[in-house]
Design brief:
alpha+beta; elongated; 3 helices; about 140 residues
Length: about 140
């Protein structure tokens, strides 16, 4: 399975009093990485909203913490498509401590649902977006 990779640095605002990344911040990092992965796959979520009136929302997320990130660490987040249905995407995101030799810090399994922005009801992912998102699986990004 191919993936999208992006790096971020841990800033003071991301940490708790002990200088360790606060557990909820990983969701924010994952959101940024997902947005960049979609953009790089030519599946801009802004375009999805403007052209089709659709949005992706997180339906569920499972987080497994393995090793903490600390202030000033550089992380690499790898995003891969695990599965797709007509209305949902399942992504696996692995957060690695790039400064610490690539050790896995956290793994996030996120399920995204495609909804109509007007009534928040499930909607089919348009074919162009389905093809674009498949790049995260097929190694084109």
């Amino acid at each position: 399975m191919a993936t999208h990779k992006i790096r971020f640095r841990v800033y003071y605002e991301d940490t708790d009093a002990g200088g360790i990344v606060y557990h909820a911040r990983y969701l924010g990092f994952a959101e940024r990485a997902r947005s960049e992965a979609m953009r790089d796959a030519d599946a801009s979520v802004t375009e999805l909203l403007n052209d089709f009136g659709l949005v992706f929302v997180v339906r569920q997320a499972a987080i497994r913490y393995r090793s903490p990130l600390r202030l000033d660490d550089e992380m690499e987040i790898e995003t891969a498509l695990d599965a797709m249905t007509p209305t949902r995407l399942k992504l696996c995101q692995t957060v690695r401590n790039y400064s610490g030799g690539g050790e896995t810090a956290t793994v996030i399994d996120a399920e995204l649902a495609c909804l109509s922005a007007v009534d928040m009801k499930p909607a089919k992912i348009p074919p162009r977006w389905r093809d674009a998102v498949r790049k995260l699986e097929a190694g084109e990004v």
